[in-house]
Specification:
The structure is a single chain. By secondary structure, this protein is of the alpha+beta class. The protein contains nine helices and ten strands. It has a five-stranded antiparallel β-sheet with strand order 2-1-5-4-3. The chain is elongated and about 130 Å long.
Length: about 375
């Protein structure tokens, strides 16, 4: 009888222990579940905060800076580099943001980086780089002060027509780029990509509203805005500023005798000559019809005359016969040049336009195909 009682008691104790173990496991699982839920809730809240930050960003550098901050804090990174490649920019490859401050060994922020050697950008796919040199490491490692023992993960994306971006992230040695880490990183990058794309489209729309559709030069609508700015800068910094008005000689005859397609070809050819002749800081506007205005900052009269001579030579070198049959004579340019000057009382934008127009009229009156510099006596 005592034996049976002992066995029953022992069985009860075992049942109680089993229940305690099960309860303990259940409680541990619940704690793990709530911890994971809290972490995910925190991550979602951080993502929402990041998304709101992106909505308030008005410049690309603000987006890059915010992406760098949120990624390094959310993923506990030891290093992060965001670089962009734009074939139309100088330099083409630029580091937009990085952390920590001593991570990048390149003093210029523009590392020697061959995008064709980057597996991420080449394949447009995220890539996990294992520690060490096997099987492959990113060529960006050569520009970083952290060794290749740090596991790396790179996410590429595009925005606009040509701009490509790579987000290169590093963890402490021994850590792993888990699926969850990669998903969180991708979510942040996707939000930044959307904001950069929207900002780029907005800038392109603003740019298009200021451009002449046929020639690709600035239109007359943008002239007041940009010229007033250049006049103000010349006044503030005491820099020279020259203004040029250009007219294509006998342009109406080309339209009448050969059609508007031929006239458009001449206008586009002139615009191409402007682009290969002028500096990036110079401004060229289609003023109306076949008349153009060119602003040359930090350029005096003598220098402006030389620039216009190069423009005339470039225009004379264009072969129009392949596009316009039976062209009687090669199109030429009449050019009027003036400089912002207290001596001639040509100071404001309207005064400069008037002076350049007066010089242009003098060029057209003098058998065309020439350059005339404004003289105060011409306006008398």
């Amino acid at each position: 009888m005592i034996g049976l009682t002992f066995i029953a008691l022992f069985a009860g104790v075992l049942a109680l222990l089993s229940t305690s173990i099960l309860v303990g496991r259940w409680l541990a699982a619940r704690r793990k579940y709530y911890k994971t839920l809290a972490e995910r809730t925190q991550t979602i809240n951080h993502l929402l905060t990041f998304a709101q930050t992106m909505q308030g960003a008005g410049r690309a550098d603000q987006i890059y800076s915010s992406l760098c901050h949120f990624l390094r804090t959310e993923l506990d990174l030891t290093g992060l580099t965001i670089l962009s490649h734009d074939p139309e920019a100088v330099p083409e490859t630029t580091i937009q943001a990085f952390w920590p401050e001593n991570l990048v060994s390149s003093a210029t922020g523009s590392p020697e980086f061959d995008t064709s050697q980057c597996p991420c950008l080449r394949q447009s796919l995220p890539w996990v780089f294992q520690p060490g040199n096997s099987p492959v490491r990113c060529t960006l490692d050569a520009s970083l002060r952290l060794p290749t023992t740090h596991p790396a993960y790179c996410i590429p994306f595009n925005f606009g027509r040509k701009i490509r971006v790579a987000v290169h992230m590093l963890l402490e040695p021994g850590q792993v780029w888990t699926e969850q880490r990669r998903q969180v990183a991708q979510a942040y990058v996707n939000a930044a990509q959307a904001s950069l794309s929207s900002l780029h489209l907005l800038r392109e729309a603003e740019k298009q509203s200021l451009m002449d559709a046929l020639t690709g030069l600035f239109n007359r609508r943008s002239l007041d805005q940009f010229l007033n700015r250049e006049v103000a800068l010349a006044e503030r910094h005491k820099h020279a500023l020259s203004l040029v008005m250009v007219d294509i000689d006998h342009f109406k005859d080309i339209n009448d005798n050969h059609g508007h397609a031929a006239g458009d070809y001449v206008l586009k050819a002139f615009a191409d000559c402007v682009r290969i002749t002028l500096r990036k800081t110079d401004l060229a506007f289609r003023y109306g019809g076949d008349e153009f205005v060119i602003a040359l900052p930090q350029t005096n009269l003598e220098q402006a005359w030389q620039v216009m001579q190069k423009l005339r030579q470039a225009f004379m070198a264009v072969d129009f016969t392949s596009a316009i049959s039976k062209l009687e004579a090669h199109p030429t340019l009449s050019i009027g040049v003036t400089e912002r000057s207290t001596a001639s009382n040509v100071l404001t934008m309207s005064q400069m336009l008037s002076a350049a127009d007066t010089a242009l009229y003098a060029a057209k009156s003098d058998h065309r195909d020439c350059i005339k510099v404004f003289e105060p006596s011409q306006a008398a």
